[in-house]
Design a protein that fits this description.
Elements (H helix, E strand, L loop, with lengths): L1 H59 L4 H16 L3 H22 L3 H5 L1 H36 L3 H8 L24
Helix pairs in contact: 1-2, 1-3, 1-5, 1-6, 2-3
Length: 185
């Protein structure tokens, strides 16, 4: 009778261990998904600021149409991207376009003094910081998930949990790694 209880106890412990591993992988997977959603939320916030920024700059620099077109095209690309790689590439393109727009604004002192422009500049700067934090949060969660998938015992349960390794949010061009300079002082 004692042997039966020992076998049942070991069996129950193994079942509880398997459940704990499954739940851990699912939790890590959800955290990674949440992290990517946070990046998308902040990128959408930035995309929502862009039309106002473009219109404000247009009021002072209407002949800079090529710059405005690049920003509008980059914004459209950014809002239609879905995978991590697509979003990262679109984010890079939009960052470069914004740099061009902000560089144009340097030539217009009245624009730099506009309260509307200064407010948009501050919002953009804040949003860029939030995007950076969201990227870091996502990559931290992806690292934890990927580590759990490739290490023992998670590697045995990843298939059962239907959890796969995720790709990191990476900036592909080192020249684009900097946050756009939005200082107008």
């Amino acid at each position: 009778m004692t042997v039966l209880w020992i076998v049942l106890g070991i069996g129950a412990a193994l079942v509880l261990f398997a459940i704990a591993q499954y739940n851990n992988l699912q939790r890590l997977n959800v955290n990674a998904s949440e992290g990517f959603s946070q990046i998308e939320v902040q990128l959408q916030r930035r995309a929502d600021l862009i039309p106002n920024l473009v219109e404000t700059v247009k009021g002072y620099a209407s002949h800079e149409s090529t710059t405005f077109e690049k920003v509008v095209q980059a914004r459209a690309l950014a809002t239609s991207a879905h995978s991590v790689a697509e979003v990262a590439a679109a984010d890079n393109t939009l960052t470069q376009a914004l740099r061009g727009l902000l560089a144009v604004s340097e030539a217009y002192p009245d624009l730099k003094a506009s309260s509307n422009f200064l407010s948009l500049q501050e919002e953009l700067s804040t949003t860029e910081n939030k995007i950076g934090f969201a990227r870091q949060y996502y990559n931290d969660n992806v690292r934890k998930l990927n580590q759990a998938i490739v290490t023992f015992p998670g590697n045995f349960f990843a298939g059962v949990a239907n959890v796969v390794a995720r790709e990191f949010y990476e900036v592909s061009d080192p020249g684009k790694r900097d946050v756009p300079d939005v200082s107008f002082s």
